[in-house]
């Protein structure tokens, strides 16, 4: 057998990705700076002041530009909330995935909406929309989820969770919560699906998050899209939270490619431009107004 010349062997290894110009088996220097995916570029937290009996929760989100589906971007108007201590979240993705109860093979769905709840794996706790999909998994901790493909574009949307019907199981009460996304441009209300929460009188925790995330396989930082995302304040049971506060958290270990500012009671997040020399990882954006006691 003929031996390969050293130069030819080097070229083969480089082409196969088994060797890089930075050394054998080592990722590019830029990649070494950051944590593994997903990258939460920013988390914003609203404090509505008190726990509240739950009927509905809505957050308005405006997306300034179209985002290609080749970039895995997750815009989450409800990045984390709790109903009677059960955590949930939901939002808008450029690439979602899911399966059906009959066909458990996970498939790529493209752009769409989703709603997930932690601490549950039963398929009986999932009610997909007509033509929608679901997921039950333990790869990020036990969770169930509904997914609805939707070719969303730039524009204004309202993501809303609503209390629905109830049922009794083994003498214990459960409540279904449905997720809807309203497109202001299309005047279209999309049912994402519903999940079954434990309890009858659900209580919404006082803190609710938003986030913007890059997920999926590792990509160059330069692929982070330039887009402005505006989150409105939480609307609880059909009424704006009366005196909310809000802060931004910029996680460590991810690219500093997001910056938030408050404007007219909303949070405006600029994504895709590097922020140099960030010193504060937690920044207050909206202060709750001090209420004067009634005499």
What name does the CATH topology of the largest domain carry?
Jelly Rolls
Number of H/I helices: 2
Q: Low-confidence segments, ≥5 residues, pLDDT <50?
A: 1-27
| Number of DSSP-assigned strands | 23
Structural class: mainly beta
N-to-C SSE string, H for helix and E for strand: HEEHEEEEEEEEEEEEEEEEEEEEE
Task: Give the termini distance in whole angstroms.
Answer: 97 Å
**CATH first level of the largest domain:** Mainly Beta
* Mean pLDDT over the full residue set: 89
Domain module count = 2
Integer-rounded radius of gyration: 22 Å
* Strand residue percentage: over 45%
Corresponding CATH architecture of the largest domain: Sandwich
Shape: globular
Helix content: under 10%
The major pleated sheet works out as: 10 strands, antiparallel
Task: Note down, in words, how this protein is organized.
The protein is mainly beta and 295 residues long. The protein has 2 domains: 30 residues, no CATH class; 247 residues, Sandwich (Jelly Rolls), CATH 2.60.120. It is 5% helix and 52% strand. It is built from 2 helices and 23 strands. The strands form 4 sheets. Strands 5, 9, 12, 13, 14, 17, 18, 19, 21 and 22 form a 10-stranded antiparallel sheet that branches. Strands 10-11-8-7-6-16-3-20-23 form a 9-stranded antiparallel sheet, with no helix packed on it. Strand 1 and strand 2 form a beta hairpin. The protein is globular and about 55 Å long. The termini are far apart. The N terminus is likely disordered.
């Amino acid at each position: 057998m003929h031996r390969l010349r050293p130069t030819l062997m080097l070229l083969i290894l480089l082409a196969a990705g088994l060797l890089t110009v930075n050394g054998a088996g080592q990722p590019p220097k830029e990649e070494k700076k950051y944590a593994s995916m997903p990258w939460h570029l920013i988390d914003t937290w609203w404090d509505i002041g008190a726990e509240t009996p739950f009927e509905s929760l809505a957050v308005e989100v405006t997306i300034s530009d179209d985002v290609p589906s080749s970039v895995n971007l997750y815009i989450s108007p409800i990045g984390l909330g709790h109903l009677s201590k059960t955590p949930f979240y939901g939002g808008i993705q450029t690439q979602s995935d899911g399966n059906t109860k009959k066909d458990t093979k996970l498939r790529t769905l493209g752009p769409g909406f989703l709603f997930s709840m932690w601490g549950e794996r039963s398929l009986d706790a999932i009610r997909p929309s007509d033509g929608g999909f679901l997921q039950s998994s333990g790869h990020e901790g036990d969770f169930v989820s509904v997914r609805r493909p939707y070719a969303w574009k730039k524009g204004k949307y309202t993501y809303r969770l609503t209390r629905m019907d109830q049922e009794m199981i083994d003498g214990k009460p459960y409540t279904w919560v449905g997720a809807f996304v309203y497109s202001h441009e299309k005047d279209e209300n999309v049912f994402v699906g519903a999940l079954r929460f434990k309890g009858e009188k659900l209580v919404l925790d006082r803190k609710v998050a938003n986030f913007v995330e890059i997920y999926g396989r590792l990509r160059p930082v330069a692929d982070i899209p330039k887009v402005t995302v505006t989150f409105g304040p939480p609307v609880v049971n059909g009424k704006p939270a009366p005196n909310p506060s809000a802060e931004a958290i910029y996680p460590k270990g991810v690219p500093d490619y997001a910056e938030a500012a408050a404007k007219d009671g909303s949070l405006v997040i600029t994504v895709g431009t590097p922020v140099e020399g960030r010193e504060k990882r937690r920044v207050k954006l909206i202060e709750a107004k001090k209420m004067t006691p009634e005499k």
